[in-house]
Recover the amino acids of this structure.
């Protein structure tokens, strides 16, 4: 049986999380055709794994256990709002990260190297360069897109605040008609 899984950081500071929710709601209020991320699902993805076997899950747990040997707990500043592929053609609306990027990139490197070393062929191949971000909403159509673009420009320097990063999670994504449900499979504490 395969498990849809990913590795993530959750937003540990409640005020940063409420700022993310507030900004997401500002985008929803534009009347644009958006699929907002649910409050409880807001996170930063270190690595999407895709549909993987239980054997791969066990190997990923071992890889995650290596992270605290190289990275101690740190602080991450959530700053700025942007969009992929661009502000003029938004498909994904996100909050950016300024402080803590080095540690997040190192975390991603440890995971990628571990996956390559263990030859985990069922793991989704990520073609994109790692760019730490927190997805707030996905754009479904071009309805009211000019309002979204205006808001993106207004919020490009928005400071959400600083949040500690004290753990890394392996999460399962259960797809339902009402949206995904995320469940913790494994948690690694940073020293």
């Amino acid at each position: 049986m395969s498990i849809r899984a990913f590795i993530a950081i959750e937003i540990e500071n409640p005020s940063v999380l409420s700022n993310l929710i507030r900004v997401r709601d500002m985008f929803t209020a534009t009347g644009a055709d958006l699929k907002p991320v649910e409050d409880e699902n807001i996170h930063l993805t270190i690595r999407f794994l895709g549909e993987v076997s239980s054997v791969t899950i066990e190997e990923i747990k071992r890889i995650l256990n290596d992270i605290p040997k190289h990275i101690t707990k740190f602080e991450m500043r959530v700053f700025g709002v942007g969009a992929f592929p661009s502000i003029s053609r938004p498909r994904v609306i996100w909050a950016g990260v300024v402080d803590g990027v080095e540690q997040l990139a190192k975390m991603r490197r440890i995971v990628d190297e571990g996956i390559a070393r263990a030859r985990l062929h069922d793991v989704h191949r990520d073609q994109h360069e790692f760019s730490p971000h927190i997805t707030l909403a996905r754009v479904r159509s071009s309805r009211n897109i000019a309002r979204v673009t205006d808001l993106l420009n207004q919020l490009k320097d928005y400071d959400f605040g600083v949040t500690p990063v004290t753990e890394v999670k392996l999460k399962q994504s259960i797809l339902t008609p009402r949206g995904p449900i995320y469940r913790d499979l494994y948690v690694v504490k940073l020293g």
Q: What stands out?
A: The mean pLDDT is 97.
